[in-house]
Amino acid sequence: MASVHAIRFHETGGPEVLRWEEVALPDPGPGEALVRHAAVGLNYIDTYHRSGLYPVTLPSGIGLEGAGVVEAVGDGVTEVAVGDRVAYGTGPLGAYSEARVMPAATLVRLPDTIDDRSAAAMMLQGLTAQYLIRRLFPVQPGMTVLFHAAAGGVGLIACQWLKHIGATVIGTVGSPEKAALAKAHGCDHTILYRDEDFVARVKEVTGGAGVPVVYDGVGKDVFDGSLDCLARRGMMVTYGNASGPVPDVAPLTLNAKGSLFLTRPKLMDYVATRSELTAAADDLFDVVGSGAVTIAVNQTYALKDAAQAHRDLEARKTTGSTVLLP
């Protein structure tokens, strides 16, 4: 049995709990594949696992997303073959590793048009953007939508994709620099949500009508205002909580604000089957491969320096996507 290095944690807490450890690398069993990572994706959900907001069994690996090459497969594997370039974005936990054995059914083959770093940076965030704007609420040409954290990893992908669809995008950001970045990636109107009344700005942009959908990965800081940005029968999509969990909301509030819809989705329920996963990935690969959506890998860290990457992510020092390099 070989061994590799991986980031693991034995207790929940801040970035300091992340450790660079030597771990055993078993041979792949039935239905499994051994993947040697070329790049690993960093996502905000990783901080939720590390902090304990999303409970995991300890000790634990961390990370849901990576790209690399298949080095071995177990019995019965038909999804991938030795030598295939592959990527994944839905776990299981443990992507922060030099190599790992994992279920072959979670892997998708990479086309030649997608490089390893882009793949590692875009799978979770890109598949998230895909289900949010193409399936959960299929945005149509001519619609105006509000996307919070428009300069984040999901935001930059979604803004470009929404523009490609023909939508008008209003995006909230935390700084003038992030506003410029969002505009360069398809965002039509940017709002500095810490300095401006984003509800008033949305109403101004939409002529008082509001938007049919709000996509919110920020959470507590913008949730209440987001409800007030919605048009009658609008959809509030709260898919993350970077600023903390959203407050409790009474169903009658949704009634009073215009018969609103509220959903708290997760990617895993939209790629629950192999066919859903491959269809979503193909959609993502097509839009990236065509050049309509570019993946902004704006930071790289050595995998062993994952704790510093977490510090920078939580301090809002990163933009776009970040990859960890084994």
UniProtKB/TrEMBL annotation:
This is NADPH2:quinone reductase. The keyword Ligase does not apply. GO terms for molecular function: mRNA 3'-UTR AU-rich region binding; NADPH binding; quinone reductase (NADPH) activity; zinc ion binding. The keyword NAD does not apply. Pfam families: ADH_N, ADH_zinc_N. It comes from the Bacteria. PROSITE patterns: QOR_ZETA_CRYSTAL. Its EC number is 1.6.5.5. It is an enzyme of class 1 (oxidoreductase). GO terms for cellular component: cytosol. Residues 13-324 form the Enoyl reductase (ER) domain. The lineage of its organism: Bacteria, Pseudomonadati, Pseudomonadota, Alphaproteobacteria, Rhodospirillales. SMART domains: PKS_ER (SM00829). It comes from Roseospira goensis. Keywords: NADP, Oxidoreductase.
